[in-house]
Backbone:
């Protein structure tokens, strides 16, 4: 038998705004002024939330926190394509997506303060809580996408993870299940270049993460993750693909974690300052502002007003966080099962009565 | 609880009772789906899902890719998305890849979201030795599951219980690890009612009443336990035999009432001894019935070794002789 080529793969990278905010006219999505400034608002909201979280952590008012700084375009670009009936299956850095869909900020802060009540998502939202075991949430996203397909619900499931998670078996099992079962799932990988201290090139010898989609028989695309228009356009296509029943796909958003992995980390131990400077020049918010200004949709005055509005909003949410009544310690027994078995009832009662034996 | 049993019964083996439970429950509730390796047209490697694919189709009896973690993880997603998945792990020895999903997610969702989300999931897995199987096909990991808050652990020993317990497990709103004693999958038949009925989780069965000593076991080890009871009855030794049926929730009242009466306890399981379920039962009796004890609690268990290959497995597994010896030890104390 002769040798024959049975498969040839091709992966595109999509970029619409360059680092100076110059737009590629042919690729520019048709969005209204309200939509464009709405995206900008989301990104600024995320950054203000994030800056406050870092402050709160330094002051001991919340615990260890994972910053999303630098990933605002990636998160706003996908979130802008979702509605409240879509499912968000986050990793632990998707605060931006969560708040974009309407999760109150004080609940997100509460999670990072170490309060499970932060995971009580309002009933009109389909956001799962942060998932700490890296990549493990992606199989839930596959299963939820299978559920939407089986019920023929036009809801889309977005499973989030970072570049490090693509080395976990869960990533591969999730893409494989989603491909085989035609799940209504979009896998959205924020390749922020670093898994704590380990660079992207140590996660895979492959040229891109996006190309891994090809092995699972689903479409994949790489986008400039600091270009909100590119992320928006790629996400729109992937979300429509899933919503219309055509199945799963993978987006690799190439971005950069501007901060430490978490507040317990020190990036100076392993990152080159030149690397940080390179990415600072590609800040997703600055870039998009330049674009809006060039389109005469945004001014410095608008910017000052927005910053003031967002700062006030964040302060208000912190007030809500800090006026939450302290949880009753006994609560940690109460939701272990729908009906508590005798041993938990016994432990709960002894605990409630102050028995510390 | 629905009770649509007819007076009719059929003679079923334990594995047939599992199939019957799935079929009856699935007929009643379209949100129940089965997923796993070879569960479709093949009906599962032990035929536990025989005929379900034909009746319910590929969307409800789902042959998955060969990945235990993916099976349980996607089942968690399906559960949160409105289904009641019943996932099959082909052998308990293969559950390790799925343990991350079972421990880190299925068991935790309800509490960490303070009830906002829950996971109505059953993970079925044939467990235990005695069938001369290859390596990794004979393990009993119930203690691992019991030590994970948020899980319920159910182990039937008869066809009647297997059906009633599995239906209760499927209709339960929290994850249930349903461990099936494959050694006795086909070893006997008994009358099993047609249609849906329930054996509640957390209710032990006093299979034989007795005065002198209590033997507590579950699953495949009920058989040597009952053989020992019969053997010693000839010597006028009266053994009470309790089948726990579920380890979580545990029927503590039945256990303590029995030990209070007899003053002696022998626990029988095939899993390794150290930190096995017998250790927990010993501690519980220590807490709640110490003054009634006439002898130390005796554990008749597997050894703290890996499970031996087929030709030595009968030396590892507790049998009638070892249970009898354990009982005598408590009587001679």
Residues:
């Amino acid at each position: 038998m002769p040798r024959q080529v049975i498969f040839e793969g091709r992966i595109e990278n999509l970029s619409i705004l360059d680092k100076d905010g110059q737009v590629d006219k042919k690729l520019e999505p048709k969005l209204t002024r309200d939509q464009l400034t709405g995206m900008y608002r989301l990104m600024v909201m995320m950054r203000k939330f994030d800056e406050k979280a870092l402050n709160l952590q330094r002051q001991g008012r919340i615990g260890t926190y994972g910053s999303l700084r630098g990933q605002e375009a990636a998160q706003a670009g996908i979130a802008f394509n979702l509605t409240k009936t879509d499912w968000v299956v986050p990793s632990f850095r998707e605060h931006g997506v969560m708040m974009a869909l309407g999760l109150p900020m004080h609940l997100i802060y509460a999670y990072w303060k170490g309060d499970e009540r932060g995971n009580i998502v309002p009933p009109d939202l389909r956001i799962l809580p942060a998932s700490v075991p890296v990549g493990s949430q992606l199989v839930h996203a596959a299963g939820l996408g299978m559920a939407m397909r089986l019920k023929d619900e036009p809801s889309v499931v977005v499973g989030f993870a970072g570049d490090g998670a693509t080395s976990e078996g869960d990533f591969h099992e999730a893409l494989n299940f989603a491909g085989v079962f035609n799940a209504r799932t979009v896998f959205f990988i924020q390749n922020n270049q670093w898994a704590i201290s380990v660079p992207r090139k140590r996660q895979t010898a492959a040229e891109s993460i996006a190309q891994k989609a090809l092995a699972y028989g689903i479409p994949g695309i790489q986008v400039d993750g600091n270009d909100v228009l590119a992320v928006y356009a790629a996400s729109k296509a992937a979300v429509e693909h899933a919503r219309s029943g055509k199945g799963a796909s993978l987006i690799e958003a190439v971005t950069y974690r501007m901060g430490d992995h978490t507040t317990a980390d020190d990036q100076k131990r392993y990152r080159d300052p030149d690397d940080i400077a390179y990415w600072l020049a590609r800040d997703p918010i600055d870039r998009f502002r330049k674009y809006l200004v060039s389109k005469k949709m945004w001014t410095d005055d608008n910017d000052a007003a927005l910053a003031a509005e967002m700062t006030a909003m964040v302060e208000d949410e912190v007030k809500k966080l800090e006026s939450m009544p302290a949880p009753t310690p006994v609560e940690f027994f109460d939701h272990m099962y729908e009906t508590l078995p005798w041993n938990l009832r016994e432990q709960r009662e002894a605990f409630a009565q102050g028995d510390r034996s | 609880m629905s009770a649509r049993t007819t007076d009719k019964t059929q003679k079923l083996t334990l594995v047939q009772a599992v199939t019957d439970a799935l079929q009856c429950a699935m007929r009643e509730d379209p949100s129940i789906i089965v997923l796993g390796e070879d569960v479709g047209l093949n009906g599962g490697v032990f035929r536990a899902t025989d005929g379900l694919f034909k009746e319910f189709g590929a969307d409800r009896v789902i042959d998955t890719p060969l990945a235990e973690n993916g099976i349980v993880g996607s089942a968690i997603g399906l559960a949160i998305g409105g289904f009641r998945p019943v996932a099959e792990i082909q052998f308990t020895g293969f559950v390790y890849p799925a343990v991350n999903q079972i421990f880190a997610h299925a068991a935790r969702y309800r509490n960490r979201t303070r009830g906002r989300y829950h996971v109505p999931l059953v993970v079925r897995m044939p467990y235990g030795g005695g069938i001369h199987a290859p390596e990794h096909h004979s393990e009993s990991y119930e203690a691992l599951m019991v030590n994970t808050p948020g899980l319920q652990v159910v182990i039937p020993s008869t066809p009647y219980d297997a059906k009633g317990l599995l239906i209760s497990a499927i209709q339960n709103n929290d994850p249930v690890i349903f461990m099936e004693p494959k050694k006795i999958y086909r070893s006997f038949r008994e009358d099993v009612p047609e249609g849906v009925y329930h054996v509640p989780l957390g209710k032990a069965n006093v299979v034989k009443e007795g005065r002198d000593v209590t033997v507590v076991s579950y699953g495949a080890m009920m058989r040597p336990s009952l053989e020992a009871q019969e053997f010693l009855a000839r010597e006028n030794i009266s053994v009470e035999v309790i089948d726990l049926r579920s380890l979580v929730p545990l029927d503590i009242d039945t256990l303590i009432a029995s030990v209070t009466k007899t003053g002696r306890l022998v626990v029988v399981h095939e899993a390794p001894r150290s930190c096995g379920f017998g250790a927990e039962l010993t501690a519980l009796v220590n807490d709640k019935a110490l003054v009634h004890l006439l002898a130390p609690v005796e554990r008749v268990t597997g050894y703290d070794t890996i499970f031996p290959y087929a030709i030595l497995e009968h030396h590892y597994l507790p049998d009638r002789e070892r249970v009898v010896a354990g009982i005598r030890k408590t009587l001679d104390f």
